[in-house]
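Protocol step 4 of 5: obtain the predicted structure for the target chain.
Materials: sequence only (see below). No template structures provided, no constraints applied. The aim of this step is simply to have a reference model before the mutagenesis design in step 5. Sequence pasted as it appears in the construct record:
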Amino acid sequence: MAAIQAKGDEGFEVAMVTIAGKEYGIRAVTRKEWRILMAERNTKLEAAGDDMKLTVEIQEDEIENLVGKCLVFPAIDVGKMLAGAVDTLSNEILALSGFAGADFEATRL
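Step 4 output (structure tokens):
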């Protein structure tokens, strides 16, 4: 696929994940991207204070932002995906990015 080739040309490896019969191509999040996502989240959480409802929304936005950034294909609005697919892809992206520990190995193309 062209999307995989384009990300490969940028230096990213693309992993395939199948969820409920649908294939997704994902890439790892870079350290710079991660720091930006965390800074944005922390700013919002600080502003939310003790508002737990807003805190949960900010955490969900964080997951959607990560998936939106690292989903190579299909080209789809994260808000239109299956709810569980977004969470699963977020976990897979984090694992692919090294958050799962040294012994974990994601499936690579």
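Step 4 remarks: The chain is about 55% helix and 15% strand. The mean pLDDT is 87.
Proceed to step 5.
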